[in-house]
Structures are given as structure tokens and as C-alpha cells.
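Appendix C reproduces, verbatim, an entry submitted by the partner laboratory led by Prof. M.T., so that reviewers can inspect both the input and the predicted structure.
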Amino acid sequence: MTNKNFKIINYILISVFFILLLFLFGSADGNINFSNIFHNILEQSKATEIKNYINQNFNSINSDNFEPEDNNEYGNLNNNNIQEENLENEELYEVYNVVDGDTIKVYINNNLESIRLIGLDTPETVDPRKEVQCFGVEASNKAKEMLSGKNVILKKDESQGERDKYGRLLLYVYLENGVLFNKWMIENGYGHEYTYNIPYKYQTEFQKAEKYARENKLGLWADNACVESGDVLESINNDSQASVDSQEPPISEGTQILDSPQVKKSSTGICHEKGTTYYDRTKNFISYNSIADCLSSGGRLPKS
């Protein structure tokens, strides 16, 4: 034991001794105020040494052996917040109903409006013409959990039309904490990035979000998440493309649309060449003259 540690232990013992005196005798006789005596001892420089000794020996326990609790209720928020300059000053709207993972209903100016979330496509659950698709229930339930009865911020995209062909408003939906819900669903594997024809404002960010979910096997990208009766996720993705609702009004005059291009890039970024299995079943696509052009745009080949 070093001389310094010996002195510190002595100070501690002396302090304990005065505390015992305080409790045993108090200051009832009016002659000795043990409380003041003890207070003076702690204020002296030697008391500082005692505090430092305690800090050096016990603080390391707290820092080395305990991990901070993760209270993130929204799952992965990695690089998620896409903030508008005046977002916190925007009007809040209460979500009246969650139809499915990518469609909600909100009262705006006393009118109940259906809102189609820009850039997001989740598996179908409510289309009477289709069976419930893989991971559709999970996506719908997560949207209900996060949005039902909650206040949200709604933002337009000037690159898109105001409404789709079904009359639904095309909007981004922000949670009160600034999380962009459209992107959150993609990044956590509850849906695909979806571009109808014209690139939207956050297309690049949403595509990166889908890549993140794929690489980390989140949600519908998890191993065996969408394997059913021998049909892999690739088949399910292409089956769903025919029923994907448009997010934009009709394309403006002068835009060339090829009915039978050499290559179609699907809404999930898969390049299908004419004559391949899913070429004819891919209804919403971007046209390319070759596989090389499709791949250079960020597309990928189907799973073999």
C-alpha cells in the first residue's frame, strides 16, 4: 500500500468517525455542532482527494461494464432523416386511417383525402383481385403501428403531379420526430423503392435505402422471408408489378414510350430482356436499348 493510499484511507476513517458522532450525540447540548464540523472537513482540500480516489476506482466500472440502452422504437434510422428547411414549422395532420403500407387517409381542409406515398411500394393486402402478397401483412401492420392516430407532416414533390390517376394525393409523410416514413419503410425492408416514370426528388436516397435493406437482409429481404411453395422472392416481385398503382399523372406530350423495348427495368430495379421469363409480366418499367444500358443505370440482373 502506497503512502498516498494510506493517507486517503485515514481520511475516510476519520470522516466515518465524525458521522457516527453526529448520529449518536447530535447537537442537543448546544456546545458542539457536529454537522458543521463534518461539512468543514469535506470542504477541505483533503476531501477532494477522497472524492478523486472514489471516482478513479468506481467510474471505470460504470464505463467499462455497462452499455447504454437502445431506446430507438423505429428500428433502423441509419441516414434516414431527410429534412426540409422549415419542416418543424409545417402543419400537422392526424392520420385517420392506414389502408396498407403505402396508402393512408387524412383529413385536409375538412376533406378526407387518400394519400399515396411517393417512392414506396409495399406488397398488396387489400386489392380484391389479388391474393395477399408476401410480407404485405407485416408491412401493413407496421404502417398502422407507426401512423394510426398519429400526427404527421405532409410534403409535396414539385417533380410529380398532385394526384395519381385514382385521385389520391402524392406526398411524402414525415413523423413528428422528422423521420421520413416513405424512406423508413424501404430501409427497414417493408417495401420497395418505386419509380413510376419520372424520377422524384429523393429517388437516389430511396434506392440506397433499398440497397441497405437488401444487403442487411431486412424484412422481406431476409433469408426465406418470401419463399412459399418453391417460389422465390424474384417471382413474387414480378407478380406484384402488374398491380402497382401509378404515382404520377399521365406523361406529358412528347415523351416517347416504347411498348416493346429491348430491355425493361422493373420498379424493383431488375433488368428483363425481351424473351426472358418475366419480360411480359413486367408492366411498370423504364425502357432501355440493351442490358448494358439498364445495368449502367443502376439496374441488376434477375436471380438465376
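The chain has eight helices and ten strands. Additional entries are available on request from the coordinating office.
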